[in-house]
Amino acid sequence: MIEKEEEFVCSINHKLPIYMIVCKKKVEKNKRLLCNQCMDNLESNLNNVMSFRKVALSIEENQKIKVKQVEYNIIKNIKQIDELQKTLHQLKQHITQQLNQLIRNTDEWIKFLQQIGQQYVNYSFFEELDNLINKVSIQQFYIQSFNYLNQLNQSFMVSKDNQQIELIQVI
Ligand SMILES: [Zn+2]
Questions:
Q1: CA 86 to mean position of chain CA atoms
Q2: CA of 27 to the centre of ligand 1 (A)
Q3: What domain of life does the native source organism fall in (predicted)?
């Protein structure tokens, strides 16, 4: 309770403990409290008058129930948010793993292409002699190597696509 009970004053400011309460909507808030002296001075019997102690107790009980309900709901909400957070963490971890895998794949891809380039730098005299005799033109070689690289890139892209699809499904 924000207010202090000992600071409560009755409607006529008698500076006595509050004894009764007028539970009427029309009565102003600061006129609702009555001390013993107020009660003695009452000209007629007031309807809707309740014991201050009873009212205070009832408000206190209601307040306890309200706090319990709010606490219960807040704890429930926090638990749900906690679960969501865990899922998000897992998702983040999974996506990071997938991205790392994709990055590793592109690294492998680059290395593989570099190795192929290296293979063409090294040549066998006898093989090339064969090619000369069989009149394998540079144009033919160019088409062959172009097709070969295309196939290779295709195979890397397919495996990359699979991972991308998996990643999209996760998201
Ligand atoms: Zn009074």
A1: 9
A2: 15
A3: Eukaryota
